[in-house]
Amino acid sequence: MLKIEAKKELPGFNLDVRLTAESGILAILGPSGSGKTMTLQSVAGLMKPDKGYVEVNGRVLFDSENKINLPVQKRKVGFVFQHYALFPHLNVWDNIAYGLKDVPKDEIRVKIKQLLENMNINGLEGRYPRQLSAGQQQRVAIARALAPEPDVLLLDEPFSALDPILKERLELELMDLQDVFGGSILFVTHDLNEGYKLGSMVAVYHSGAIIQHDTKENVFSHPINRDVAKMTGMRNLIEGVITGLDGENVTLDIPSWGEKLRVVSERAGNYFLNQKIIVGIRPEYISLAEKQGENVLPATVSHKMEGIASSNYRLRIKSDTSEKRYLEAVISKSSAGPLPENSDCYLQLHPELLVIMAE
Amino acid sequence: MTDYLEPLLVSLKTVTVTTVVTFFLGIAAARWMAHYDGRFKSLIDGLFILPMVLPPTVVGYILLLVFGINGPLGKALLALGEKIVFSWEATVIAATVMAFPIMYMTAKGAFEQVEPNIEAAARTLGANEWRVFWTVTLPLAKAGVIAATVLAFARSLGEFGATLMLAGNIAGKTQTIPIAIYFAIQAGDMDKAMVLCIIVLAISFVSLAAIAYWKGMAAKMKPVKVS
After folding, report:
1. Residues of A in contact with B127 (CB under 8 A)
2. Do B140 and A129 touch (CB under 8 A)?
3. What is the arrangement of strands in the sheet containing A259-264, beginning at the earlier edge strand?
4. A326 in contact with B at a CB cutoff of 8 Å?
5. Is there a smaller number of Cβ atoms within 10 Å at the N or the C end of chain A?
């Protein structure tokens, strides 16, 4: 159990966050410069918040009110730095052993062997960091952080420097890490997919504050506002008005399109008639329809960027209103025929895949 | 033979002691200033480097004021039975003051080059500041610190102005090689001056070669960046 409260004023930037984490992985998601790394630093004691409170498993590490500020060395926090920060002058064995100074020698041997085994880096103990691949360096960095048996493990953008194939493999390894490490794992990322895949809980950061802190499912399916929605990849956000409520069914009027939409939301009860809302649509959730129907919009392809498995489209909604309204869509090649620029099509917006949020 | 041997021995003795003293003083000051962020930072920094920009005779004059029998430190030391001016210790004091800035500046630069996250990593692994310094900072700044030491060594070997003013020219006691060369030339003894010059040349060349060698060694120890 981890509790964090941190406030810090810097010129041009204010950090003001409050977080809790159980065991398991908490993903801290946000653009660069939003205070993610600073949060980790306040937990580790590498940065002192002006005001705040940090508690790990009932142990208070920092409490500005009661003037408690444990030094970094006493916090028992494992930290994996963005570029791993391995000791370049020490080999893998000595890197991992660095945090085991007060442990008896034969115990160190057993422990390091176990860590080498767990992290799948057996046989590398004599190598220097410069002789390791990026993936191996990351494993060593994690093994080094785990060696002194920390209460929490903090990872700062651990995958940002890796190529996609390696990244995927190491992401899986991080998931497995939960089997050998029972404490909370906090990991910082600006990559949406990474946050979604790895975190069971997600905290969304935006310029020094947390705008949503919830389970992954809730953050991605029920973003509380436009900022969270944007951050979680909902690139289409359209204003609407609620014109009908019936159980989980919500009927919306989209004035700018001159269209009606039906949305199925398990949170329909939170809304009221005539409420102005935002409806969010993920580009990946838009599919093509054969003909007009419910939640089907006629559109024209205005731009197309072809990818390997799917293509990105910018589509102009044909509406009676004079405004030009666009939707971004990612449509897989297996479901779409050739859809060149300037061609017409029908877009299907599935009621279950639309998300509404208060304006 | 003693004509050459005496200045050489005085110089070697002075330079050795000076280099050791400067090494520790310079490193301590550099480590402190590399982490110090108070409001007197530039002031202290300027003070430490000052002897490098001042003419050596000015430094020598200031040292005379401080260590002279009427100076604050001179008086105190005299009470303890030590007279600094024109003693061998004076050659060490003068050379240390002149060599300190270059040791300090070069070592500080080397410490500041050490990736802060690597030091932070050591701290998160439980290492106190002392251990971080000896096991991480210093090994990673090794090339710079060695270069600093060699430069300080060279600077103290070449020290002339301040030494002459504070320690004078007493053969076998305070007469270092540079001072011996000057007085040999004054006396028209060009042969003696040349031999002494060759000795200095040899020592300087060896120290520069040592820097190059160590830098080459240390380049292999550079931190790796993931790309």
Report:
1. 73, 98, 101
2. no
3. A259-264, A249-254, A236-246, A276-281, A355-358
4. no
5. C
Pairwise CA distance, residues A56 & A26, whole Å: 14
Residues 6+ apart with CB under 8 A from A296: A289, A346, A347, A348, A349
Q: Out of B117, B123, B226, whose CB is closest to A137? A: B226
Q: Are residues A188 and A129 in the same domain?
A: yes
Q: What value does the mean pLDDT of chain B take?
A: 90
Q: Tokens 């040592």 identify what position? A: B210
The whole model's pTM is what?
0.82
B219 — contact with chain A (CB < 8 Å)?
A: no
Residue B224: DSSP 8-state: P
Q: Which residue has the tokens 């080094």?
A: A144
Pick the CATH number of B2-219 from 3.30.420.40, 1.10.3720.10, 2.40.50.140, 2.30.30.240: 1.10.3720.10
Confidence band, pLDDT 50/70/90 cuts, at residue B35: confident
Q: Which amino acid is at B43?
A: L
Could you tell me the two tokens for A83? 């570029």
B32 to B19, B20, B23, B112, B122: CA distances (angstroms): 19, 18, 14, 11, 18
pLDDT in tens, B204-221: 888 788 778 877 776 666
Q: Find the CB nearest A79 among B121, B139, B225.
A: B121
- CB–CB contact B127 A73 (8 Å): yes
Query: For chain A, what is the radius of gyration of the CA atoms?
Result: 24
- Concatenate the DSSP letters of all residues of A141-205 into one string: HHHHHHTT--SEEEEESTTTTS-HHHHHHHHHHHHHHHHH--SEEEEEES-HHHHHHH-SEEEEE
Q: Which residues contact A124 (CB under 8 A, 6 or more apart)?
A: A92, A116, A132, A136, A140
Tokens of A316: 């102009």
Q: Are B144 and B110 in contact (CB under 8 A)?
A: yes
Percent of chain A whose pLDDT exceeds 70? 98
Instruction: Region of A258 please: left (phi>0), alpha (psi -120 to 50) or beta.
Output: left
CATH number at residue A30: 3.40.50.300
| pLDDT tens profile A314-359 | 999 887 766 768 899 999 888 777 788 888 899 999 999 999 998 7
Q: Could you say which residues from 258 to 317 on chain A have a Cβ atom under 8 Å away from some Cβ of chain B?
A: none
| Band of residue B227 on the pLDDT scale cut at 50, 70, 90 | very low
